[in-house]
Amino acid sequence: MIDITAIAAGYTAAWNSGRPEAVADHYATDGGISINGGPLWQGRAGVAEMAAGFLADIPDMVLRCDGVRAAGLTAIYLWTFTGTHVASGKPVSVTGWEAWELNAAGQIAASRGWFDAENYARQTG
Question: How many whole angstroms separate alpha carbon 93 and alpha carbon 65?
Fold first, then answer.
């Protein structure tokens, strides 16, 4: 049986470590993530690249898990991140969620992430 609370806590801690590889370690080796319907970041290397981009933009990022719900191997992870946008020096606070498909080992096989990109652009612009 999968402990979704523990998976969410570990994923949150991985983002807060500032290490893209720690985020990628929560994905299956062939897992991936698509953000706001965009292209798929495939495999752990792709996920690490995606995380590195966010962490480069918001190097002092703090991610908070706002909630998690699961039904079998499908879960919704709700989050808020805060920090300072490096290019503009402006503070940001962004909410969003990820829809996860997990494998039997509790790794993320597929994630579709969503956040308000227009709100993010207003805060950083």
Answer: 13
Q: How many domains does the chain have?
A: 1
Tokens of 22: 């720690």
- pTM, two decimal places: 0.96
* CATH for 29: 3.10.450.50
Beta strands in 52-90 (DSSP E): 62-71, 74-84
Question: What is residue 14's three-state secondary structure?
Answer: helix
Supply the range of the domain harboring residue 14: 4-124
74-84 pLDDT per residue, tens: 999 999 999 99
User: What value does the mean pLDDT take over residues 14-39?
Assistant: 98
